[in-house]
Amino acid sequence: MRTYASVPFSDVTITGPFWSERLETVLARTIPSQLEKLEQSGIRGSIKLPKPLPPLTIPRQSNNFTVQYFWDSDIGKWIEAAACAISHRRDAAIEAEIEAMIDDLEAAQQPDGYLNCFYIEREPENRWTNLRDNHELYNLGHLLEGAVAYYHATGKDRFLSVMERAMDHVAATFGRGEGQKRGYPGHQEIEIALVRAWHATGKRKFLDLATYFIDERGNTDGVEHYFDIEARARGEDPKAYWFENYEYGQAHLPVREQTKVVGHAVRAMYMYTAMADLAAEHGDDALKAACEALWRDVTEKRMYVTGGFGPSEHNEGFTKDYDLPNDTAYAETCASVAMVFWAARMLNLDLDGQYADILELALYNNALAGLSRDGEHYFYDNKLESDGSHHRWAWHECPCCTMNVSRLVASVAGYFYGVAETEIAVHLYGGATATLPVAGGRVTLTETSDYPWDGAVRIALEPEGTRTFTLSLRVPGWCHGATASVNGEALEVAPERGYLKITRDWAPGDVVELNLPMQAERLYAHPDVRQDAGRVALRRGPLVYCCEQHDNPAPVNRLRLPSDAPVTARHASDLLGGITVLEARAEAEDADAWGGNLYATRRAPSSETALTAVPYYIWCNRGQTPMQVWLQE
Ligand code: FUB
Ligand code: ZN
């Protein structure tokens, strides 16, 4: 069923200004500063065994949980981000640090392959007793993803061997065989890593283990729910679970029966990613149908306009349909990063622009907002409205988002292209060069553009001799009036499910030009999103905009954009490194003329004011400030 394969980040070179700048920042500032934070927080030291054990840095909560259970995952994610970054530009110091971490992990690994520094150090007798809460499989997943990325970036496979031994141990421990536990992770993630390891190594055992975890999840057919079994074995009442039911970790039903997006958002998105991967690997229609149902559910009822997911802090996840509060939005950075993963897999299953549109939305907006311009400050939760109190963190007690966003930016090259036997699909634009296999040969594609600021895209092709294949160019859902030409000759633009398909004998020197007009547009929410009633959001191209107080003379919460006011775009090369802003004449109610009353029988008088909006992803880079995505109309 897999019709398209992704092209690994290491095979694509980013050349365009937008992503080159972000990549360089991640390499030069984010990776080194994250390493410093890992050292200061004790995470780096926690994988050095044996040693006198320091007390827990992060005390246990009432349910006995501490985020230190998943410190190994932070190491794995940092290695992955660093590996992706050095594939962009090799850096001996970073590589040496990765090697030192691998030394520590290799030394910590137990003779049977078990690897989890927290349990090895602190609770060796309790290993594999609480998959529901304690992240052992999640940690291994991130370490394995780090190992795969490092292998892609450098060709070095020592870390991969360490992780292969760990996976062999996991495969021996969990499964449906005699003496095995029928467990699966409380926090999904390892399934994605295993599929990546299968692709990198061709070793089927990785795929089999991923398949087992997905198939067994939520299974109660002739067996007791695994999380109940292990709770009882710990002497706990399963009903005393702090999240009440297993929707929290999407283990309430077998995955093929799930149609409603529920629970913890990051867990959900990681699981759907793996489901789409496995649907493609096995040609599994039931799994594909479940992915499609879940996709419709989340994108039609439970997604922020910025591509954020999960409104609630309580479960870090989903609540009810159309419940999308702005000022309390959780919309965790990790969840949008994970949506990029899922959407990329859906595109491989089925080349449909709706998947690329959401990939791009999550990437350029909610996910990218998670990393500051200086590369050293982060958002964990991504509000769509702030009274000025929301701010970026230099680090977080639970630093999951910090290295999720850096690994995404460092590997963004991997989301540009998809390849099939006789087709190349271009999903993203922004300046990327790659030599790709197609039609029995190779073709070098050099795409240049100033995307996301400008929709003029040029693609030069250099096939090995003349080759017949289809070049499928994404025409984004937000774009109206796209035009295209090959070697200067205009083409009719009639996209098939979001892709303009050009099939011909391509020859060296061929050039395709695609023009994707970017207009400032107004967006409205479904009438049942009560928090957005009577409000409008602004978008241009892939970017959603917001008003920050810095650029607006009137308080942003009072801005009202008349429904007929033209909204214009202006490139401000001197602002925030060069961004396109949106401008309009607006109105704002005047509080001074209102008086001291809280309520009155007449509206406050309004006066005209200028409105300036900046891309959402770049907000809060000039200090804390009030901000508003949804404006009164
Ligand atoms: O539990 C590991 C990570 O920490 C989750 O994915 C995030 O939501 C945060 O809780
Ligand atoms: Zn996170």
From TrEMBL:
Residues 11-413 form the Non-reducing end beta-L-arabinofuranosidase-like GH127 catalytic domain. GO terms for biological process: carbohydrate metabolic process. InterPro entries: 6-hairpin_glycosidase_sf, Beta-AFase-like, Beta-AFase-like_GH127_C, Beta-AFase-like_GH127_cat, Beta-AFase-like_GH127_middle. It comes from the Bacteria. Residues 521-632 form the Non-reducing end beta-L-arabinofuranosidase-like GH127 C-terminal domain. Residues 424-518 form the Non-reducing end beta-L-arabinofuranosidase-like GH127 middle domain. PANTHER family: DUF1680 DOMAIN PROTEIN (AFU_ORTHOLOGUE AFUA_1G08910). This is Glycoside hydrolase family 127 protein. It comes from Oceanicola granulosus (strain ATCC BAA-861 / DSM 15982 / KCTC 12143 / HTCC2516).
